[in-house]
Specification:
Helix content: 25-40%
CATH topology: Rossmann fold
Order of helices and strands: EEEHEHHEEEHEHEHEEH
CATH class: Alpha Beta
Radius of gyration: 19 Å
Number of helices: 7
CATH superfamily: P-loop containing nucleotide triphosphate hydrolases
Strand content: 15-25%
Number of domains: 1
Strand order of the largest sheet: 1-4-8-9
């Protein structure tokens, strides 16, 4: 069975990942890794059953309709609303509240947009910068990937390096809380350093850096090199190239 091609205007959200895989392409060569096999082998998820929800966050972020749907799924749950606000305050500390509003009927989700209350005024979240939209998308996607997988492409896009350590701490904590396995790609050294600082500070969540590189014995093949938290600390302290 071959899954249908995703609609380019929406996000990939599936409830059964047995037919889905992580595809790695490099220099015209591609290899696929079934997601449920990765989860069972590495022991990230408590229950090895391969029926898992999977959310894919592109570099462009969540579409308007999916963002509104994801908000509806967590709205009025105090813990999750607090988590969202704590995340957004990494960029704008004075945010007081967030909501999705629009002139269209509530059922027309694509017509709704996120607004925040800042200094007593209601303003569109998007007017505060690209980083706010990116961070909101990451947090909403994570909250809606419970007991499953979250794939994030170029996680650091739009996010200043000064907020990335705390961003990773939030992701690690909530991923542990919701039993979510997160796969995030990056080419940013700042993001890797931030990840190392966050994982070393975490006592519950498990994080691992995986580098993809050509095999020395056969350059047409790609191998995955994994780094334990201790090895990653040595790498970042020594400024060794792992991207």
């Amino acid at each position: 069975m071959t899954p249908p091609d995703p609609d380019p205007d929406t996000d990939v959200i599936v409830d059964d990942i047995r037919e889905y895989a992580l595809a790695v392409g490099f220099a015209g060569w591609e290899r696929t890794y079934p997601l449920y096999i990765l989860a069972e082998r590495d022991g990230f998820l408590d229950d090895p059953t391969p029926l898992r929800r999977c959310v894919f966050l592109r570099t462009a972020g969540l579409s308007a309709g999916i963002a509104a749907e994801f908000w509806d799924n967590v709205a009025l749950e105090q813990e999750f609303e607090t988590y969202l606000l704590d995340g957004l305050r990494l960029i704008e500390p004075e945010i007081e509240a967030i909501a999705f509003v629009g002139d269209l009927p509530p059922a027309v989700r694509s017509g709704r947009r996120p607004i925040i209350r800042l200094g007593g005024a209601r303003i569109p979240l998007g007017s505060t910068g690209e980083g706010m939209n990116r961070l909101l998308g990451i947090l909403l996607a994570l909250l809606n990937a419970r007991d499953g997988f979250l794939l994030i492409d170029e996680i650091e896009i739009g996010l200043h390096y000064t907020v990335q350590v705390e961003m990773w701490k939030l992701i690690l904590a909530m991923a542990h809380r919701l039993n979510v396995q997160v796969f995030a790609t990056t080419h940013s050294w700042d993001c890797i350093e931030a990840f190392q600082h966050a994982t070393s500070a975490s006592t519950a969540a498990h994080g691992q850096l995986i580098r993809l590189q050509r095999r020395r014995s056969d350059p047409s093949q790609i191998q995955a090199v994994t780094y334990t938290p201790e090895e990653l600390q040595v790498v970042t302290q020594g400024d060794l190239e792992v991207r």
